User: Fold this.
Amino acid sequence: MSIKAVFVDFDFTLYSHRKKHIPQSAVDALMKIHEKGLKTVLATGRNVLEMELFSEYRDIPFDGFVMLNGQLCLDSSMKKIFANQFRGEALDSVVSLFNEKEVPMAFVEENSIYINFCSEVINIASGDVATLRYEPGVYCGNPLYLAVAYADESQEADILARLPGCNFKRWGHIGIDIVPEGMDKTKGVQLFLDRFGVSREECFAIGDSFNDVGMIDFAGTGVAMGNAVSEAKAVADYVTDDIDDDGLAHAFEHYGLI
Assistant:
Protein backbone atom coordinates (compact mmCIF):
# COMPACT_ATOMS: atom_id res chain seq x y z
CA MET A 1 0.00 0.00 0.00
CA SER A 2 1.39 3.43 -0.94
CA ILE A 3 2.23 6.11 1.59
CA LYS A 4 -0.08 9.14 1.46
CA ALA A 5 0.65 11.06 4.68
CA VAL A 6 3.96 11.80 6.42
CA PHE A 7 4.34 12.87 10.06
CA VAL A 8 7.69 14.37 11.07
CA ASP A 9 8.99 15.14 14.56
CA PHE A 10 10.84 18.44 14.99
CA ASP A 11 13.70 18.37 17.53
CA PHE A 12 16.60 16.13 16.50
CA THR A 13 14.56 14.75 13.58
CA LEU A 14 13.96 17.83 11.43
CA TYR A 15 15.92 20.43 13.38
CA SER A 16 19.56 19.81 14.29
CA HIS A 17 20.48 21.34 17.64
CA ARG A 18 24.11 20.51 16.96
CA LYS A 19 24.22 22.63 13.80
CA LYS A 20 21.37 24.99 14.81
CA HIS A 21 19.36 24.64 11.62
CA ILE A 22 17.20 22.34 9.50
CA PRO A 23 19.47 20.42 7.11
CA GLN A 24 18.92 21.52 3.52
CA SER A 25 18.53 17.88 2.51
CA ALA A 26 15.50 17.64 4.84
CA VAL A 27 13.94 20.81 3.41
CA ASP A 28 14.44 19.56 -0.15
CA ALA A 29 13.02 16.13 0.70
CA LEU A 30 9.88 17.59 2.26
CA MET A 31 9.38 19.95 -0.68
CA LYS A 32 9.62 17.00 -3.09
CA ILE A 33 7.00 14.89 -1.33
CA HIS A 34 4.72 17.93 -1.06
CA GLU A 35 5.01 18.44 -4.81
CA LYS A 36 4.08 14.79 -5.29
CA GLY A 37 0.85 15.38 -3.38
CA LEU A 38 1.68 13.63 -0.11
CA LYS A 39 0.25 15.23 3.02
CA THR A 40 2.94 16.41 5.45
CA VAL A 41 2.38 17.17 9.12
CA LEU A 42 4.83 18.44 11.73
CA ALA A 43 4.37 16.51 15.00
CA THR A 44 6.08 18.05 18.01
CA GLY A 45 5.93 18.43 21.76
CA ARG A 46 6.45 22.18 21.38
CA ASN A 47 3.83 24.91 21.18
CA VAL A 48 3.41 27.79 18.74
CA LEU A 49 5.26 30.28 20.95
CA GLU A 50 8.38 28.11 21.07
CA MET A 51 8.28 27.41 17.34
CA GLU A 52 8.83 31.12 16.75
CA LEU A 53 12.45 30.43 17.75
CA PHE A 54 12.82 28.37 14.56
CA SER A 55 11.20 30.49 11.87
CA GLU A 56 12.81 28.48 9.05
CA TYR A 57 10.19 25.75 9.52
CA ARG A 58 7.70 28.15 7.91
CA ASP A 59 9.47 27.69 4.58
CA ILE A 60 8.17 24.11 4.47
CA PRO A 61 4.53 23.80 3.28
CA PHE A 62 3.10 21.63 6.05
CA ASP A 63 -0.53 20.56 5.75
CA GLY A 64 -0.98 20.57 9.51
CA PHE A 65 0.64 20.63 12.92
CA VAL A 66 0.37 18.23 15.85
CA MET A 67 1.53 20.37 18.78
CA LEU A 68 2.08 19.68 22.48
CA ASN A 69 2.24 15.90 21.98
CA GLY A 70 -1.23 15.76 20.47
CA GLN A 71 -2.91 18.20 22.85
CA LEU A 72 -3.32 20.86 20.16
CA CYS A 73 -3.75 20.39 16.41
CA LEU A 74 -3.61 23.18 13.83
CA ASP A 75 -4.34 23.27 10.12
CA SER A 76 -1.95 24.56 7.46
CA SER A 77 -2.80 28.17 8.31
CA MET A 78 -2.17 27.54 12.04
CA LYS A 79 -5.90 27.64 12.82
CA LYS A 80 -6.92 25.48 15.78
CA ILE A 81 -8.88 22.38 14.79
CA PHE A 82 -8.52 20.36 18.02
CA ALA A 83 -7.57 21.09 21.60
CA ASN A 84 -7.55 18.89 24.69
CA GLN A 85 -7.00 20.56 28.06
CA PHE A 86 -6.37 19.08 31.50
CA ARG A 87 -9.59 18.40 33.39
CA GLY A 88 -10.81 16.79 36.59
CA GLU A 89 -8.38 14.65 38.58
CA ALA A 90 -5.55 15.22 36.11
CA LEU A 91 -5.88 19.00 36.40
CA ASP A 92 -6.18 18.94 40.19
CA SER A 93 -3.11 16.75 40.62
CA VAL A 94 -0.84 18.68 38.26
CA VAL A 95 -1.88 22.07 39.70
CA SER A 96 -1.25 20.77 43.22
CA LEU A 97 2.26 19.66 42.29
CA PHE A 98 2.94 22.97 40.55
CA ASN A 99 1.78 24.98 43.56
CA GLU A 100 3.82 22.94 46.06
CA LYS A 101 7.00 24.22 44.36
CA GLU A 102 9.01 21.13 45.28
CA VAL A 103 9.56 20.11 41.65
CA PRO A 104 10.52 22.75 39.05
CA MET A 105 7.66 22.89 36.54
CA ALA A 106 6.38 24.86 33.58
CA PHE A 107 2.74 25.28 32.55
CA VAL A 108 1.80 25.74 28.88
CA GLU A 109 -1.41 27.55 28.05
CA GLU A 110 -2.55 28.58 24.58
CA ASN A 111 -0.71 31.92 24.59
CA SER A 112 1.69 31.70 27.52
CA ILE A 113 4.32 29.57 29.23
CA TYR A 114 5.40 30.15 32.82
CA ILE A 115 7.22 28.33 35.61
CA ASN A 116 6.40 27.79 39.29
CA PHE A 117 9.79 29.03 40.51
CA CYS A 118 13.23 29.85 39.16
CA SER A 119 15.61 26.90 39.22
CA GLU A 120 19.01 26.13 37.76
CA VAL A 121 17.59 22.73 36.78
CA ILE A 122 15.36 24.46 34.23
CA ASN A 123 18.39 26.23 32.76
CA ILE A 124 20.22 22.90 32.51
CA ALA A 125 17.27 21.28 30.73
CA SER A 126 17.06 24.22 28.35
CA GLY A 127 20.60 23.38 27.32
CA ASP A 128 19.28 20.20 25.68
CA VAL A 129 16.94 22.11 23.38
CA ALA A 130 16.50 25.80 22.65
CA THR A 131 13.59 27.25 24.62
CA LEU A 132 12.10 30.59 25.53
CA ARG A 133 13.09 32.24 28.78
CA TYR A 134 10.32 31.40 31.22
CA GLU A 135 9.18 33.72 34.01
CA PRO A 136 7.47 32.61 37.24
CA GLY A 137 3.69 32.72 37.12
CA VAL A 138 0.54 31.62 38.90
CA TYR A 139 -2.12 29.28 37.51
CA CYS A 140 -5.35 31.29 37.27
CA GLY A 141 -7.72 28.71 35.79
CA ASN A 142 -7.09 29.17 32.06
CA PRO A 143 -7.18 26.07 29.83
CA LEU A 144 -3.97 24.16 30.51
CA TYR A 145 -2.62 21.99 27.70
CA LEU A 146 0.78 20.78 28.86
CA ALA A 147 2.91 20.67 31.99
CA VAL A 148 6.65 20.11 32.05
CA ALA A 149 8.48 18.69 35.06
CA TYR A 150 12.23 19.12 35.31
CA ALA A 151 13.46 15.98 37.02
CA ASP A 152 15.88 13.14 36.35
CA GLU A 153 14.91 9.48 36.06
CA SER A 154 15.50 8.82 39.76
CA GLN A 155 12.61 11.22 40.59
CA GLU A 156 10.26 10.07 37.87
CA ALA A 157 8.40 7.27 39.68
CA ASP A 158 7.64 9.48 42.69
CA ILE A 159 6.32 12.31 40.52
CA LEU A 160 4.19 9.97 38.42
CA ALA A 161 2.65 8.51 41.59
CA ARG A 162 1.52 12.01 42.55
CA LEU A 163 -0.16 12.66 39.20
CA PRO A 164 -3.17 10.35 38.77
CA GLY A 165 -4.85 10.76 35.42
CA CYS A 166 -1.61 11.83 33.73
CA ASN A 167 0.97 10.36 31.36
CA PHE A 168 4.68 11.16 31.12
CA LYS A 169 6.61 11.75 27.88
CA ARG A 170 10.31 12.27 28.63
CA TRP A 171 12.16 14.44 26.09
CA GLY A 172 15.56 14.81 27.74
CA HIS A 173 17.65 13.64 30.66
CA ILE A 174 15.81 16.18 32.83
CA GLY A 175 12.71 17.31 30.92
CA ILE A 176 9.39 15.45 31.13
CA ASP A 177 6.21 16.45 29.30
CA ILE A 178 3.03 15.71 31.26
CA VAL A 179 -0.26 15.21 29.43
CA PRO A 180 -3.67 13.83 30.39
CA GLU A 181 -3.87 10.06 30.44
CA GLY A 182 -4.41 8.52 27.01
CA MET A 183 -3.01 11.50 25.10
CA ASP A 184 0.10 11.47 22.91
CA LYS A 185 1.17 12.34 19.37
CA THR A 186 -0.72 9.29 18.09
CA LYS A 187 -4.05 11.00 18.87
CA GLY A 188 -3.06 13.92 16.67
CA VAL A 189 -1.86 11.61 13.93
CA GLN A 190 -5.21 9.79 13.90
CA LEU A 191 -7.10 13.09 13.77
CA PHE A 192 -5.23 14.15 10.65
CA LEU A 193 -5.56 10.74 9.03
CA ASP A 194 -9.33 11.02 9.44
CA ARG A 195 -9.21 14.58 8.13
CA PHE A 196 -7.18 13.54 5.06
CA GLY A 197 -9.12 10.32 4.43
CA VAL A 198 -5.90 8.32 4.79
CA SER A 199 -5.60 4.92 6.47
CA ARG A 200 -3.14 3.97 9.18
CA GLU A 201 -1.41 1.66 6.71
CA GLU A 202 -0.82 4.62 4.37
CA CYS A 203 0.83 6.64 7.16
CA PHE A 204 4.58 7.27 7.55
CA ALA A 205 5.99 8.64 10.83
CA ILE A 206 9.56 9.48 11.78
CA GLY A 207 11.07 10.62 15.08
CA ASP A 208 13.83 10.17 17.62
CA SER A 209 12.65 10.51 21.21
CA PHE A 210 10.46 8.88 23.85
CA ASN A 211 7.45 10.98 22.86
CA ASP A 212 7.74 9.61 19.31
CA VAL A 213 7.62 5.92 20.26
CA GLY A 214 3.82 5.64 20.14
CA MET A 215 3.61 7.51 16.82
CA ILE A 216 6.34 5.37 15.21
CA ASP A 217 4.72 2.17 16.46
CA PHE A 218 1.26 3.28 15.29
CA ALA A 219 2.19 4.25 11.75
CA GLY A 220 1.98 1.75 8.92
CA THR A 221 5.59 2.74 8.24
CA GLY A 222 7.48 3.87 11.33
CA VAL A 223 11.06 5.15 11.14
CA ALA A 224 13.55 6.04 13.86
CA MET A 225 16.44 8.43 13.32
CA GLY A 226 19.97 7.09 13.70
CA ASN A 227 20.30 9.36 16.74
CA ALA A 228 17.04 8.05 18.26
CA VAL A 229 16.64 6.52 21.70
CA SER A 230 16.71 2.73 21.78
CA GLU A 231 12.99 2.57 22.62
CA ALA A 232 12.14 4.33 19.34
CA LYS A 233 14.46 2.10 17.34
CA ALA A 234 12.91 -1.00 18.91
CA VAL A 235 9.44 -0.30 17.48
CA ALA A 236 10.59 1.13 14.13
CA ASP A 237 10.28 -0.64 10.80
CA TYR A 238 13.51 1.03 9.71
CA VAL A 239 16.34 2.97 11.37
CA THR A 240 17.79 5.68 9.15
CA ASP A 241 20.95 7.75 9.55
CA ASP A 242 21.72 10.50 12.08
CA ILE A 243 20.01 13.85 11.56
CA ASP A 244 23.34 15.43 10.59
CA ASP A 245 23.98 12.66 8.06
CA ASP A 246 20.83 13.46 6.07
CA GLY A 247 18.78 10.88 7.96
CA LEU A 248 15.37 12.29 7.04
CA ALA A 249 16.12 12.44 3.32
CA HIS A 250 17.66 8.97 3.38
CA ALA A 251 14.52 7.57 5.03
CA PHE A 252 12.37 9.04 2.26
CA GLU A 253 14.74 7.61 -0.34
CA HIS A 254 14.66 4.19 1.32
CA TYR A 255 10.88 4.03 0.91
CA GLY A 256 10.85 5.53 -2.58
CA LEU A 257 9.10 8.74 -1.55
CA ILE A 258 11.72 10.85 -3.35
User: Anything to note?
Assistant: The mean pLDDT is 92. DSSP finds nine helices and 14 strands in the chain. Residues 88-100 form the longest helix (13 residues).
